[in-house]
Amino acid sequence: MTVTIENDTPYSKAIVHAVHAHDGQYRHYSKQQYVHHVIRVAEHITKHYDHRDDYQDLRVIALLHDVLEDTWMTEEDLHNHYDDTIADGVVALTHDKSLPSDERHEKYKQQLIEGPESARIVKLADIHDNTHDVMPDEERYQSYLEDSKALLKPLEVDDETYKGQKERMLKIIDSRKT
């Protein structure tokens, strides 16, 4: 499915793409439409990172961070509608589902470590939203917390807000582990 949007900002295009791409998707553990998650991640970026020169790109990447992994959108679609900075940020936030789980997670961590700074910032906002969401399956939630902590620890960004947010997120994760 192709969505064509002309004469618009990258952010408004990303809203339309996210809504269409995630149409009919719901969070695994709630009845909430999935698009609410990506909007909250973008709102987190809006709240904390407006001091950065790449602020607008961060918001677009946040809205699109799951489209390659969970929808019909392709890398080609991203490159057709957005510049390389945005497309590369989204690609860095995408797990390679063709790999076995252990390899997939290690490759993903390396993508984030070596990839654009924007991907690490959006990933932190994504973990923030997921951690504050309600997961009724306690075992799954605890596993998510462990995986998130292991992923976050090596991620660095030369930005004081990021450093403070990361430190707070690691403390929240530790406080919620049983």
Describe this entry's structure for a reader.
This protein is an all-alpha fold. It has helices spanning 10-21, 35-48, 55-64, 67-70, 75-81, 84-92, 101-114, 117-132, 138-152, 160-176. The protein has a single domain (10-176), classed as Hypothetical protein af1432. The radius of gyration is 16 Å and the shape is globular.
Give the topology, please.
Elements: H1 10-21, H2 35-48, H3 55-64, H4 67-70, H5 75-81, H6 84-92, H7 101-114, H8 117-132, H9 138-152, H10 160-176
Keywords for this structure?
10 helices; mainly alpha; 66% helix; 0% strand; 178 residues
Task: Give a quick rundown of the structure.
This protein has 178 residues and is mainly alpha-helical.
CATH architecture: Orthogonal Bundle
The overall number of domains is: 1
| Radius of gyration from CA coordinates | 16 Å
Helix-strand category: mainly alpha
Summarize the amount of helix as a percent range.
55-70%
* CATH superfamily (homologous) name: Hypothetical protein af1432
